[in-house]
């Protein structure tokens, strides 16, 4: 079976569904949800702390605490991704524009699941091509695996001829200004749907 985009998206969507069914994702009907008519996935009722301690291309260790005061959107991917990752990052640029003034307070963070190939130089150029304000982070294979587990993110290497690609969860995790995970935007959401969800996060105290 050829490794095409429809199959990849099916795998990513199935992985997200498996996490939810396993109790790693949001409940189907979360108690006392803060949100109304949400397009994405509600994580606001979860008490598990999601965080990272990874390195940016300038060699600085970054954690969520560094971005307190901003709404943070975290996406896991890799620079050689042919479709899902560039689509998600381009959508993020459009979301920032559509948010208007609030867009200046949205910090987009790209965490690589392919540290073997995604060097600091490669990551820096990659995210800057979308928006110079985006932040790219990487870690050792062990740090990457630990961070993915903390976020319940699935990823795996898939051989393709003499090289490989990566399957990975295609969600954008959104944290409020206090560093608490509130929701996840799904890959299928439009810019307007993402903006509707994000405005609710910006409205939180």
TrEMBL record:
Record's keyword terms, sorted: Copper, Disulfide bond, Metal-binding
Disulfide bond listed as a keyword: yes
Signal peptide: none
CDD domains: SCO
GO molecular-function terms, A-Z: metal ion binding
Paired cysteines (S-S): 81-85
Positions of Cu cation binding: 81, 85, 168
Record flagged with keyword Disulfide bond: yes
All residue ranges annotated as the Thioredoxin domain in the record: 43-203
Pfam families, sorted: SCO1-SenC
Gene3D superfamilies from the UniProt entry: Glutaredoxin
SUPFAM superfamilies with a match to the protein in the record: Thioredoxin-like
Homology family: Belongs to the SCO1/2 family.
The protein, known as: SCO family protein
Originating species: Microvirgula aerodenitrificans
